[in-house]
Structures are given as structure tokens and as C-alpha cells.
Amino acid sequence: MSKNTKVLIVDDNLLNLEIVKGILEEEYSLEFAKTGTEAIEKLKVFKPDIVLQDIMLPDIDGFDVLAFIKNTPFLKNTKVIMVSALMGVEMRLKGYEMGAHDYIVKPFEDDELKAKIDIFSELVHSHEIKEAFNYTIEALSRAAEACDEETGNHIVRVNEYSYTLAKDSGQDEDFCNEIRCFAQMHDVGKIHVPMSILNKKGSLSKEEFVEIKGHPIYGAKIIGESEQLRMAKEIALYHHEKWDGSGYPSGISGKEIPLSGRIVAITDVYDALRSERSYKPAFDHKKTMTIFKDGDDRLDPEKHFDPELLSSFLSNNEKYESIFESLEGEGV
Amino acid sequence: MSKNTKVLIVDDNLLNLEIVKGILEEEYSLEFAKTGTEAIEKLKVFKPDIVLQDIMLPDIDGFDVLAFIKNTPFLKNTKVIMVSALMGVEMRLKGYEMGAHDYIVKPFEDDELKAKIDIFSELVHSHEIKEAFNYTIEALSRAAEACDEETGNHIVRVNEYSYTLAKDSGQDEDFCNEIRCFAQMHDVGKIHVPMSILNKKGSLSKEEFVEIKGHPIYGAKIIGESEQLRMAKEIALYHHEKWDGSGYPSGISGKEIPLSGRIVAITDVYDALRSERSYKPAFDHKKTMTIFKDGDDRLDPEKHFDPELLSSFLSNNEKYESIFESLEGEGV
């Protein structure tokens, strides 16, 4: 991947530029600037992933260039390595305070420079992989919706509700971020349920209901055993469990049900009530909240949901209403 | 995520340990060692993501500990930052040569240490995300197979064949690695084709065949517009195009068909011929190669495949046979 990494080398010394070129050109895509002004021009066009930034320059200095990078939105992922012979502790600290990522002192050795650029290059690609990862999670989640083009924002809304409920009930940032990413995977197992059953109007036969009830187990199988997808698997497997043990597929109860599953159990039902389904019209927020408080022929909130989560959900119910409204669109 | 990052701090000076602890303990999970021997004991149990490794120690030195890390398979992703007051260029180079990732000179400033550990922590998590990404790509690919548990190794084999064909036809390492990751996604669109059609024994009706022919377009939609998944989308969309323009869904021909699609067109057919399908038994390598040379009632290799790729495939056919054998298992 490394030739994909773009490195801008800023140094007013031509010999230095040649040396650095020799060390990096085989594996990296390079551009050069000999003054601060030239550096800023190159930054705008070349949009480098990494800048090797000499501090002492004939016109503006390296800190000015660093400030430009930090104030330019399309350079927000650019990594900056400050370079100088005169690198006292104050200058290093000034660089770090301004958002530089590392420094290197001249004269440096080839291996040293190469090691640093390699590390930062890996880091640059890691952002791209993270984006592609998020994209693939979403593709997998959307693939499970019965009708690809028409799904609307159900999965996105469930992510946002779940983040909010986790946050309001005092979970730490890591947990909240993780559930925001993985709540959307709750129904991936529906990929293996025939569409004729998922979209059936009218009531389901016993066999059809058994088939639908298989989706948490199918989902857990699809997601599999990756440690990084542990929460996604939990959610797929446990989002239909109920507090009193009357849910499926395991029939576990109370805090035996993982927290992530208890959260998505609430947020998924809220979105189902707000959306049109083959067996019911869409309900407005007010009617939905009445059902969340008093129940109806299908839902008994006190028996089905974690009481603490339910209480947080009810007290902050306007947040869920506003998420639904800002991300409206037909859910499946 | 940062509390998930485990940092081992090796330093024989108790005061230094306390200082480093103060800087890092809020965000990182820490362990400490005051001698090289103790460091090795802690490495075995704590399995740190990052080691902050002082060089001068009372027993064995920091380079010995570094050597232990480099020779221990379960520490292969551990990042090592060498620390010393006496950091001449020879010592730094020795560290880099032995596989250290960075160094820091005592006395260092709080911000400096923090910046370095933050960068490495990000890098550690990026490996995990990359693993999770690969895992999710595979989950999405497997989800498209009609019968989750029984799929065998079809998708894994197509990855390996495609890598080999790309390599043998002179593509660069980046292209080869990418196709090895994404070839498996060629059939994701089958998620939206009813299983009753995919698994039908006997011939398909015209409508059913139209439905099956939709899978490249469904697949491209599922994969979507991410730049990082561009090749995956190409493969999904174009792996049923033919050299003479008689394929689907676009009917493009020759080099209009992206290279990735032309490669998977060959490797997917090879695997289909080697595997049992609802309409045919599994063929052995010899019979399959006869079809690849002379064609049969369904396949006209000269009209269907890129002639250069076909020629590479035929000359290296024993490689594909051995991939099939080493990864045997019923394909779908």
C-alpha cells in the first residue's frame, strides 16, 4: 500500500531534499518544497498524508506551516513530523502543543527516518481501513433489510437511539461508541429468512414464526467469533430476549441478558412502533410513548425491558423523538 | 478505546516509574518492571501492546528484552519505544535494526511522551480494526452463500486463485493483495436472490434466470460507493461479463471489463467446475482443464475469457489444482 502514501518534504537545503528523496522515493509518493510559501501551495494541491517539516525556512517558519495545516479541514488527517537541527525542548513542546505528531533531530540516520515514516504511513492507512470497516458493517446491516433500496434509515436510527440510551444510563465512552457502530447489526440474521415471510401481510403460521425466531442465531453465526465484533454478536443474539425471560432464542432473563442486548431491545421496539409494518401502521411519538408506559396486547414494558433502562428511556423520551424526526424514512 | 491499550514501563528508577505513571495512568492500562528479568516475566503474562523500554538496567539490558520481544510470536504486534539518557546514534540504530519502533531521550517532557504513546496506541488499535474489517468482509461474503453452515471454502479458494492469477500476470503487490481480499465478495448480491432459485434442481424458468442475473447489480449496490471498496464493487458488478461482450449485466467486452472482473470470471468458473452444483457433479482437475481448453456446451473459453489471463491460467494450471486440494470443501 505504501506507494499510496503521499509525503511532502519541506526543507530549504537542496542537499537534504536529495538525501530524503533517496531514502523514501522507492516506497512513497513524494513532493518537495523549499520555502514555507511553497509548502502551503503544495499542501493545497498535493494534500499529503505526511509532512516532514523543517522549522528554519527562508520566509515563514515551520510553525506557521504547521498552523496552516491545523487550520485546514481537508488536512485534518495529515501527520506532521517536525525536523530541525536546533531542537531544544521548548521548540519540541511548542510543536506538540500546536499539534505536531513527532519530531526528528538533524542529522538523522536513514533507518531512523524510514522507521518513522513507515509508522505514520501505517497510521494513515489505518484511518482508511476504519472508514472501510464502518462502511462494510453498514453494507452487511443493510443487506439484511428485505428491500435494499427502500430501507430508509432504520439501522442508522437504531445506532443513534442506542448510543443515547447507553450514554444516559452512564456507560463509558468506549461502550457508547461501540454500540453506536454495532446496534445496526441486530437483524443481520434476517438475510437467511425468506423474504416471503419477512414481508408477509397478515398473521404468520407457526412454522413461519419459528423461521423468523431463528434470525438471532443466524445473525450470531454470520458475525462469528471475532473479538472486535463481540458486541455486535451479543446484540444480534440477544436483542429479542426479555427481562422476565419470555424472549427468544435463549429465554434468559434480567441481567443475564448482556447490557447491549437490553439496550437494543428497547430502541428496536421504539423504531418498530414509529414505523409502518406489514401488520400495523406507523404510530406517532405520543401513541408510542403511551404503549411504552402502559403496554398493549403485544408489549408489556415492565416485563419485557430492563427497568432502569426503561426509566432512562422514558425520562429522556424527547431525545428519541428528535432522532426519529431528523432521520425519518421508512424502516423495515 | 485507549484504556484498552496495555503499556509496560521498564525502568530501574522508581522515581521515573512514578512520573510516567502520572502521565499515562488515566488513559492506559499500565504494568511496571524494574529489571530486565522482571520485564520478561511481565511480558509473558501482561502481553502489552506497547513497551517503554529503558536501555540501562541492573541485570540484562534493554536490547536483551527487545530481542526477547522480537523472538516471541505472541508479542509480534507489540510496539517498542526505547528510552535512554545515553542515546548516541549507534544505540538508536542498533534499536532500529533490532526492530524497535521509536526512541525517546531522557529527560523527556510529559507532552512528548504522551504524544508518542497516543500514536502507538492508535496504531495498535488499527491492527485490530484491520482484522475486524477482514472478518466483516468475510462475514458479508459468507452471508451471501445459500446455506451458511455448509458453504465450505468456495470464497476462500476464489481469493487464493485470484491472487495467483493476478501475480502470474504481472500485477503489482498492492493489486494482488487487494484482489485476494475482495474476490470473495463477487457473489454478495445473491443475498437478494431467493434461495429457492439459487438451490433449484433442474433448469430455471426465464423469470428465474432474470432474477439470478440481477445479482451483480444487487452486489454493487450492497457494497456501495466507498473508495476503499472500489475493487470489491468492480468484481461484484463485472465477474459475469465476457470477453466477446456476451456476458451480463452490462455486455461490455475486452479490456472495457475491469481487470479484477476478468480475473474473477476465470477463477470463479474454475471453482464452479471443480464443485458439485445442483445441475452438475464435481469435475476433477483434468476434466476441468479439458473444458478450459476445448470448451463445452456452456463454456467457450476463447470467447469468454481474456486471452492473456487464460494463457497464464493454463500454463500455471497445477497451482490452481493445488489450491483447490489444500482448501477443499463443498462450494455453493
Unreliable segments of 5+ consecutive residues of chain A: none
Q: Give the total of beta strands of chain A.
A: 5
* Order of neighbouring strands in the sheet with most strands of chain A: 2-1-3-4-5
Query: Structural class given helices, strands, pairing of chain A?
Result: alpha/beta
Write down the oligomeric state: homodimer
State the share of residues found in helices of chain A, binned by percent. Answer: 40-55%
CATH architecture of the largest domain in chain A: Orthogonal Bundle
Task: Identify the biggest protein-protein contact and residues per side.
Answer: A-B, 54 and 53 residues
In percent terms, what proportion of residues of chain A is strand?
5-15%
Count the helices of chain A. How many?
A: 16
Q: Termini separation of chain A (Å)?
A: 39 Å
Indicate the radius of gyration of chain A in whole angstroms.
27 Å
Can you walk through the features of this model?
Helices cover 54% and strands 8% of the residues of chain A. Chain A is of the alpha/beta class and 332 residues long. Chain A has 2 domains: 2-128, Rossmann fold (3-Layer(aba) Sandwich), CATH 3.40.50.2300; 144-326, Orthogonal Bundle (Hypothetical protein af1432), CATH 1.10.3210. In chain A, strands 2-1-3-4-5 form a 5-stranded parallel sheet, with helices on both faces. In chain A, helix 1 links the parallel strand 1 (6-10) and strand 2 (29-33). At the A-B interface, helix 4, helix 5 and helix 10 of A face helix 4, helix 5 and helix 10 of B.
